[in-house]
Design goal:
Blueprint: E1 14-15, H1 19-24, H2 26-33, H3 45-62, E2 69-70, H4 74-82, E3 87-89, E4 93-95, E5 100-102, E6 106-110, E7 113-119, H5 129-142, E8 149-151, E9 157-159, H6 165-180, H7 191-194, H8 200-209, H9 221-229, H10 235-239, H11 255-270, E10 274-275, E11 285-294, E12 303-313, E13 316-323, H12 331-348, E14 352-356, H13 360-371, H14 378-384, E15 390-392, H15 393-400, E16 401-402, H16 410-415, H17 431-443, H18 447-481
Parallel strand pairs: 1-5, 2-3, 7-8, 11-14, 14-15
Antiparallel strand pairs: 3-6, 4-5, 6-7, 8-9, 10-16, 11-12, 12-13
Helix pairs in contact: 5-6, 17-18
């Protein structure tokens, strides 16, 4: 991938690559243009991995062209265009009037015109506003009348729509407006977006100090806007409301939703656990189940490299797993071993339940069945049946309890000393960490190093399934208390 430093003009220059921040959050985009004075945060290992894989993908696309010329500057780009170079790699553009700079991956000569092209790890451009904005803006800078090409991560090549020019225009105009704004734009809290953001230390404390409505996981941003319009501007004000007296606002309609939002606000402010329904945990043998997958796998995205289980044993609970070995193991072989292991559990336990957290495990089983034509496989049909053995704890938790948390993620619940108080052995571990370490495992220089990395990932996955076990025990204790 490229660096646009080679065309930098001043600190107010807008780069086409800023479209990623623009799509993420208007305040994130503002911070890019008005970098706050905060503790320097190193780019995390997952972002580095994405960049490395992106560089490799771009190099593979470049290798498809027998002859290419690499642009060294804006002026050199123009000379290559005038010379009708058939493939220009990393052409550089700068619009002085807009103070806008961009470096697409390729310019491809087609007849009398050049076509902009970019290599992306994404599998599709559908719904990807940042990609659409980037390609439309590159076309604008290159003055290309042809649709742009995108070389997707799975090897497919697609054209962008010329209608995406509207998205590109919005990106440029909104970034220009942010560039001259001295005050941070208004925005909202989103745990999913804010937690990994490099600027979270600048704005999250502000959300908390303002008692912002969107700290409430039951409140969408548009619902918060509607509440503010009727005078409810803080969590405290929402907590003091009553469901039957609270008017409907967009994305917060009906007494059930309003009741949950109000109770969530009360729980966040008081720190109390609020019970809203009973949990009817089914009777049976609980096998706790968690998978680790690589969303960027070259041969079929979403490849699972670890299917982990915590199973009942006479001495407590034992960890079992299916691991996709490097070099000689295939994705389909690991999937087949998973089905065989589950089949063994089915025979061993009289009434097994596979306890997982969130819908991800069910979705991956369905995807794998579709990928390898196993929709009619006996184990697949048993697992995915409406009254089958998959038991999603997240649904049970949210249906029965209001917790004093900003998110209902497994780690958020289990690590909280007021709740489950289960701690992972590897502090830095997480789903993205696991992916990075799996790539380290694949690239390890020797078997001993690979085995050490594998042991780390297995420890993390075992802690995940032990966490769901601990959460189950906590739910049982809560039910017994009431």
């Amino acid at each position: 991938m490229y660096s646009e430093d080679c065309v930098v003009q001043d600190l107010n220059t807008i780069y086409v690559s800023d479209a990623v921040a623009w799509e993420h959050c208007s305040r994130h985009a503002w911070f890019v243009l008005h970098t706050p004075v905060v503790e320097e945060i190193e780019t995390d290992s997952f972002e580095k991995l994405i960049k490395t894989l992106g560089d490799e993908h771009e190099a593979e696309v470049l290798a498809r062209f027998e002859i290419s010329r690499t642009a060294k500057s804006v002026a050199h780009t123009q000379k290559l265009i005038e010379a009708r170079a058939p493939v220009i790699y990393q052409p550089k553009f700068f619009d002085a009037e807009l103070n806008l700079a961009g470096v697409p991956d390729f310019l491809l000569l087609e007849g009398e015109n050049y076509r902009v092209a970019d290599a992306k790890l994404a599998l599709s451009v559908s719904g990807k506003r940042a990609i659409k904005a980037q390609l439309a803006t590159y076309r604008r800078l290159a003055r290309s009348q042809l649709p742009a090409l995108v070389f997707l991560g799975d090897g497919e090549t697609v054209e962008t729509d010329l209608e995406d020019d509207v998205i590109g225009e919005s990106f440029v105009s909104e970034m220009q407006a942010l560039r001259v704004e001295d005050v941070q734009p208004e925005t909202h809290y989103s745990h999913t977006k804010c937690s990994p953001c490099q600027f979270r230390y600048s704005c999250v404390p502000e959300f908390k100090q303002a008692d912002d409505l969107t700290l409430n996981p039951a409140i969408q941003a548009r619902a918060a806007d509607g509440l503010r319009q009727i005078g409810i501007k803080t969590l405290a004000a929402l907590a003091n409301s009553e469901p039957d007296k609270l008017p409907d606002v967009p994305y917060l309609k009906g007494e059930v939703r309003k009741r949950r939002a109000i109770l969530q606000a009360r729980s966040l402010r008081s720190g109390e656990i609020l019970k809203i329904d009973d949990i009817n945990l089914p009777v049976g043998d609980y096998l706790h189940f968690d998978i680790e997958s690589d969303p960027m796998a070259r041969a079929g995205r979403g490849e699972v490299y670890l299917w982990g289980f915590l199973i009942p044993t006479p001495n407590g609970a034992g960890f079992k797993y299916v691991w996709k070995e490097r070099d000689y193991d295939t994705d389909e072989q690991a999937w087949s071993r998973f089905l065989a292991m589950v089949g063994g559990f089915r025979e061993r336990f009289q009434n097994p339940y596979f306890v997982h957290y969130s819908n991800y495990e069910r979705v991956q089983i369905q995807r794998y069945a579709d990928r390898y034509g196993d929709q009619s496989h006996e184990i697949v049909q048993w697992l995915l049946a409406d009254a089958g053995p998959l038991l999603d704890l997240r649904t049970l938790v949210k249906d029965a309890y209001i917790l004093p948390l900003l998110s209902y993620g497994l780690k958020m619940i289990c690590r909280d000393p007021r709740l489950v108080n289960f701690q992972w052995r590897l502090d830095e571990s997480g789903s993205q960490w696991s992916v990075v370490r799996y790539y380290d495992y694949l690239d390890a220089s020797n078997d001993a190093a690979a085995a050490e990395i594998k042991a780390e990932i297995l420890t993390y996955n075992e802690d995940d399934v032990r966490a769901t076990h601990a959460l189950t025990q906590w739910l049982e204790s809560m039910e017994n208390e009431t």
